[in-house]
Amino acid sequence: MTKKFLDKAYQLTDGAKGTRALYDAWAASYEAEVGENGYATPGRCAKALMKFAKNPATPVLDFGCGTGLSGLALKLEGFSTIDGLDLSPDMLALARAKSLYRTLTLVDPDAPLPVRPGDYRIIAAIGVIGVGAAPLTTFDTLMKLLPKSGLLVFSFNDHALADWRYEAKVSEWTDCGAGRLLFRKYGPHLPGANLQSNVYVIEKA
Question: 3-state class of 33 per DSSP?
């Protein structure tokens, strides 16, 4: 299989607008490409989150929802109310067709996020933060949106884990007690592309 878009995604260096352009172009073939590579992280994240979510009816913000594979994994695990955000209109169109989400919102990379602190007690950023995707500062943004005892489930793939700053960012929050690391496990991400990922669940202190 030609991994044209996977390769390009991990080489992106031109910011949010470049990311939007690539994911718009990738939208039509995205699910086929990641599916052929055995994309496992959404299911792993959803299962990890369910271990700690006290009420699966609590609304979940699926940040960077893409075509809705993450929303599907969350729904299959039992989460019933899911709102999606993404910067790619073409990806969002495919997510909308799945009828999984309560709301779907297009993010403007040049404007503040359309979410206020405390709007969601659970946020998912599944396969979102990393090399060629959302910048590491996104982690701080999402943690600050959570209320006390709120949960963030997220993943870092091998490309991110090769950069010490990603794990250091998690430690920055947990070492000072601002967050509690509830779950971290290394496992398959895109096994067909020989990629693994860490899945994490953090509770806001």
Answer: helix
Looking at domain 4-204, which of 3.30.420.340, 3.40.30.10, 3.40.50.2300, 3.40.50.150 is its CATH number? 3.40.50.150
Element (H, E) at 103: strand 103-106
pLDDT in tens, the chain (205 residues): 344 545 545 444 555 555 656 656 656 666 677 778 889 999 999 999 999 998 999 999 999 999 999 999 999 999 999 999 998 888 899 999 999 999 999 998 888 999 999 999 999 999 999 987 889 999 999 999 999 999 999 999 999 999 999 999 999 999 999 999 999 999 999 998 899 999 999 999 9
- Rounded to two decimals, the pTM is 0.88
